Structures are given as structure tokens and as C-alpha cells.
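Here is a typical protein record:
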Amino acid sequence: MTKVLTQGLLCLLFCAAAVMAADKNVFDFTLNSIDGSPTPLGSFKGKVVMLVNVASRCGFTPQYSALEAIYEKYKDRGFVIVGIPANNFGAQEPGSNQEIKTFCTTKYKVSFPMMSKVSVKGDDITPLYQFLTDKSANPKTGGEIQWNFTKFLVGPDGRIITRFEPDVTPDSPQVVAAIEKALNDLKR
């Protein structure tokens, strides 16, 4: 009897955990802004969001220009980019949050929200990136981050729409088409 009861409770806990994980979305997470203030991603609910792990000393760093350009082009339609610095690849983001902020605003005139530096892979991966890369929660877009400037497009409900690898530039036809489709779906 005890064995059956234990198995039943374990099954119930597993099912509850699976249901809770299935309901989770990007807007359930909080990151700190580049200035250190807690920033619930839920504050972007109702907008189309692009999450990008960024680095200041990477071959893809010039993508900041295209990121800023598409942010400026679409922000009034409900689009936001969230830059998330990470130092996981080749130590290409070694600076402090203040140094990162100064670099981005001075060199690339970045005006989109920037978060504090986090880890996007490894033992110290931040919970947001644990979720983004979880293949069971996100079978189409999950998988380990391979390099800086991986982009996740998120719908107004916090669900991941698609993922773009670093070599796909923010102003490429497929990224622009995905942003425009998501923004057009916002109007409905």
C-alpha cells in the first residue's frame, strides 16, 4: 500500500511539474538592468521582444548598429530589443556593466534596454537562458547557445517565436520578415 501511495504521489508531482513548466514563458523571468535594477521581463508583455546575448569584443559586435536600427524602426509599433551581455565565448565581454553601457552608448548609440552581464551557458547559466535553451520546453528553438549574438524573437504572450543564430544579422530579410509578421499579428 505504501509503495502504491508513494508511486502515486511521485506521478502527481511529476505531472504538476510538467504542467507548470509548460505554462512558463519568457515573461516569467527577471533580469537586472545594466544599472542593476530588477527588470521583470513581464514589463514587456504585449510587445514583440528580441532577446540577444551580446559582447563588446566579438566579430559580431558590429551587429549593434543593425540592432539599434531595427529597434528605432519598429519600437513605435510595439517592438523592443533586450541586450543581454555575456562573457561565455572567448572572454569577449570582460568589462563591468558600466564599461559595457559606456561602450554601447558611445560607439553604437544603443538606446534599447540593456541588462547586466549574465552567463548564457555552463554551470552558472542564468535561469532565463536555462529556459530558452531547454529542448523539452522549447523543442523548435532550444539547444545550447553557440556564440554571441544569438537572437530569440518572443511574441506578446512571452512564447518564443523563433531563434536566429549569430551569423544571421538583425537586418537580414528573414529577421525583418519575422519581426513584421509578429507585429502584424499584434494588430489583430
Observations:
- DSSP finds five helices and six strands in the chain.
- Residues 2-23 form the longest helix (22 residues).
